[in-house]
Amino acid sequence: MKKSEETAETYLINRREFNKRYRKWLKKHNDTIQKLTEIPRENKLSWGTFIEEAAIKYANNIAVKFEDEELTYKQFNENVNQYANYFLSLGLKKGDTIEVVLPNRIEYLIIFSAVAKIGAVASLINIDLREKSLIHSIKLTPGKIIIIDEECFEFFNQIKDKLDLNEDQILLFLPNEGKIATPKAFNDLSEAVNECSKTNPSTTLTIRTNDALAYIFTSGTTGLSKASILIHNRMIGGALFFGQTIAEITPDDTIYIPLPFFHSNALTIGWASAFSGGGAVAISKKFSITRFWDEIHKFKATAFIYVGEICRYLYNQPPSDNDLNNKIRIIIGNGLRLDIWMRFKKRFGIEHIVEFYGASEISPVFANILNFDYTVGGCGNPYAIIEYDIEEDKPIRDEEGFMKRVPLGGVGLLIFDRSDPNIFVGYTSKEATEKKLFRNVFQEGDVWFNSGDLMRDLGQSHAQFIDRLGDTFRWKGHNVSTTEVEETINIFPDILLSSVYGIIIPGTDGRAGMASIVPSVKGKDFDLKAFYNHLEKNLAPYAIPIFLRFKSDFETTSTLKFKKNVLKREGFDLTIIDDPLYILLPGEKLYIPLTTKIYDNLQNYKF
Questions:
Q1: What is the CATH number of domain 381-468?
Q2: SS (HEC) of 369-380
Q3: What is 472-603's CATH topology?
Q4: Residues near 540 by beta carbon (within 8 Å), at least 6 away in sequence
Q5: Could you read off the pLDDT of 332-349 as tens digits, one per residue?
Q6: Which end of the chain is more exposed for a tag (fewer CB within 10 A), N or C?
Q7: How far apart are CA 309 and CA 457, in angstroms?
């Protein structure tokens, strides 16, 4: 029997083997673990001091690699100081917000670190967003300074007049390929910093570990993105925990990052880990299946950051005699599915898969530090996996009104104890923060954070990720809010109602978007081209539904909620669905009818 076909019980962590590996790990890394517990209590270190200390300790080591450019730690810190001193000259101060609208490039890390040294907060805008979502994100965290990369200027300029900018907000333009001259009302940031001092600003020493460092946007189950608060401790903790106690980074290592820096994996796991031991971070402008291994070789990478979809794309490529021709010893990420776990590990010669589970808005993480297979690892923070009613979409409570833990091997909703407020700092919105909390869970007055994720209890404080819950699903490495997509669909003139949900396509990771719609016109009069154009203008590419299902009406529950679970189960199954179905094929910009031939190709992994 293949491992991917084994029962849940097979994955349970063996207690004897766990104790053996854990004692060995603890003995080796006890000093670092002790430091990790002391950092938040001392509340002195910050990402700025972390950078400055690394610049002294690893001065001539390569810190950053991007395309054909490299910077040493000393050069990187000097660049950071020039930007920080320039921002200070503009009046930026501790607590202010600076909006960063950039693709992956060295300047992203420089600007992020410069803002950190001042104590301001970098709002990391998702550059895949468009129109309504983009406007919402920028207005949610209004910046004293807004930095726009040349590549992002066109879509920013399209919504600029809707941002309610005032004359006190400073607009900075960062050239890229030099195809656009500095726009009117913008200052050229690359020129402005040239004459600034390379000396460490005095403000760095005023920042504390628990101060806010950045805003990272997460898709919410109730609609548009929420801005979660990243504190300095998360960056430093990521550096020491992942970089030192797991990956054991040295100056000989290079961590390759193909993920965008507006997501926390690239920041707190990839970049932070590399800098923890004087290693280098190698930046890819964006993930490319054709460039991936070429860049791994070019940068001499020994590790890379992943989401499950990346591993799936790599594995789906035809096997090659060159598959083992790499120096990768460890990979860190989340979402690697069980069906390819061991085959991926063996094919590419990877010693350790550090699957982990975490979220931008919470500090607890599960991490596979002990190199067990098929697990997100263990968690040192108080958590529980509780029984959950999928149909009713709510936790199951006992006769006394309290929630119940699942048995060993069982699947349920993951929640975290919030008795320590640093477990979940919250969002910029108090209302959004409150909606993520459960109260009176196991006893009167207790408060727990709702992760929104289903997990399997493997024992020994280990778990296995199963799926997302409710109105958010994951596709292409991004969380997609169904409410946000529905709101976008519903403003299209020929739509009466819509219901969006994630469904599984064989041979892919995550869930693809599917929209069931009730049109206001007859099917033949529905303009599919105009509808796609509407979606492309208003949604990030990964949020555009892959499938459409035309319905005459929706079934509802007694509380008038659409029965999404039925729609999810039926998916795009032509054998049980009589409604018209359409599909958006890869690389296309028009929905076409889902034919039997296309359906069969989907079942046989042809797309």
A1: 2.30.38.10
A2: CCCCCCCCEECC
A3: GMP Synthetase; Chain A, domain 3 (3.30.300)
A4: 126, 128, 129, 130, 133, 478
A5: 998 888 878 999 999 999
A6: N
A7: 24
